[in-house]
Amino acid sequence: MLAFLMSSSFTRDDVAEIAALANLEIAATELELFARQLNEILAYAEQVQQVDTAGIPATSAVVSYHTADREDRVLPSLSREDALANAPDAALESGLFKVPRVF
């Protein structure tokens, strides 16, 4: 059950009132469309609420363990020369490469 009371359906007036509260300009031709779409969303939410979840254990996280969660370790990396091997206009002595001036 939802933690708050919802209207069982949206009317054109409801949509116009919500749009006014949100400072949105909605054309009169769109009011009926949005009311219908909001009613479809409400109907789906009610359908989802009817699903029996009694045998489903609660979860504290929705993502599983990833290798990105591993412990940090210092590992060997590329040498400065290897890292700058394909860089345009590389200055190997300083470990940098030149780029065109931006401003």
Structure characterization notes:
The chain has 103 residues and is mostly helical. The protein contains three helices and two strands; from the N terminus they run H-H-H-E-E. A hairpin with a 4-residue loop joins strand 1 and strand 2. Helix 1 crosses helix 2. It is elongated and about 70 Å long. The model has no long low-confidence stretch (mean pLDDT 83).
Give keywords.
single chain; 103 residues; mainly alpha; 4% strand; elongated
Beta strand %: under 5%
Tell me about the biggest sheet? 2 strands, antiparallel
Helical fraction: 25-40%
Straight-line distance between termini = 58 Å
The low-confidence runs, each spanning 5 or more residues with pLDDT under 50, are none
Q: Helix and strand string, N-terminal first?
A: HHHEE
Kindly state the mean pLDDT as a whole number? 83
The largest sheet has its strands arranged as 1-2
Class derived from helix and strand content: mainly alpha
Number of DSSP-assigned strands: 2
Radius of gyration: 29 Å
Overall 3D form: elongated
Number of DSSP helices?
A: 3
Write the layout of secondary structure elements.
Elements: H1 12-21, H2 28-49, H3 80-83, E1 90-91, E2 96-97
Antiparallel strand pairs: 1-2
